Structure formats: C-alpha cells, structure tokens
Amino acid sequence: MMAIAGEANQIFPSVAMSDHGIDGEVEFKDDDGKASGKRIYIQLKSGNSYLRTRKGDGSEVFDVSNERHLEYWISLPADVYLVIRQTDELTGQQVIRWMNVTRYLKARKDKKSRQIVFAGAKLDMEAVWKVRDEFFPPSGRS
Q1: Which of 110, 36, 102 is closest to 69 using CA atoms?
Q2: Rounded Cα–Cα distance for residues 16 and 85 (Å)
Q3: 0.85 cut: is pTM over it?
Q4: What pLDDT, in 10s, does the model give residues 71-122?
Q5: Which long-range contacts (CB under 8 A, 24 or more apart) does 1-10 make?
Q6: Among 26, 14, 15, residue whose Cα is nearest residue 130
Q7: Exposed/middle/buried for residue 53 (C-beta within 10 Å: 0-12, 13-18, 19+)
C-alpha cells in the first residue's frame, strides 16, 4: 500500500489503530501537492485465505472476525477501504484489490451480518487517483 500510494504521489502513514481494524491511511495531496487533510483509512489483508467463494451464488466473501470492527468502520470520519493481496493460483502473480467497505456497510440491508461480499477492484496508482479525484475533481488536468 505504501508503494502504491507513493507511486500515486499521495501520503501513506501507518497508524496505530490495528486492534480496531485500521492499518493505515492515505492522505491525499491537493492540486498544489500539499497535504490536504482529506483521507481514507486502510484495512490490509494478505493471503488467499481471507476470501471464500459462497456456494449459493459464487460471490467472494470476506468474513469479519470481530463484529465490533463493523460498527467502528462506519463510525469513523473517513471511509475505510479493505485491501486484500492474494496470489493468483494459475500465474503465481500477486493481485491486490480494494473496495470501500464503509459505503458497502451503510448501503446493505442486513446490518448485523459479518459477511462482506467483496467486489474489489484492482488497486494501483490509477485507482488511488480515482478516489483522490472524489475529493479534488479534475479541473482541466489530463
């Protein structure tokens, strides 16, 4: 995450909230390249065991081990992104995906379930810039 944020020219300081399910944050720079205070929180997971395929519909599911994380994530002043790094079993390549779990949790009907249907998108420099642009919409930038 640090390397990807750095490649996107954003700031990734790790934070000491890991017992609550936060491993770091990305602070976005404004159009002048200065720290803006606008941020997202990051929950990092690495390994193929974090996602399972649900038999009923084939969805990838992340099981939240501590239900208190769900309430905590929703209560934070910035959105939490779940980042999962896995190894593709066919190619051996590392695959890193992420999703905004705050939006997911707020939108879903079953507020008590500890299952998150993981619809993670590829995490790379462009993905970080896309989220940054939600805070600072492009104005003639190409």
Answers
A1: 102
A2: 21
A3: yes
A4: 999 999 999 999 999 998 889 999 999 999 999 999 999 888 999 999 999 9
A5: 1/26, 1/42, 1/44, 1/83, 1/123, 4/96, 4/123, 4/124, 4/125, 4/128, 5/128, 7/124, 7/125, 8/125, 8/128, 8/129, 8/132, 9/33, 10/128, 10/132
A6: 26
A7: exposed
Per residue in 5-52, pLDDT (tens digit) is 999 999 998 666 555 678 999 999 999 999 999 999 999 999 999 999
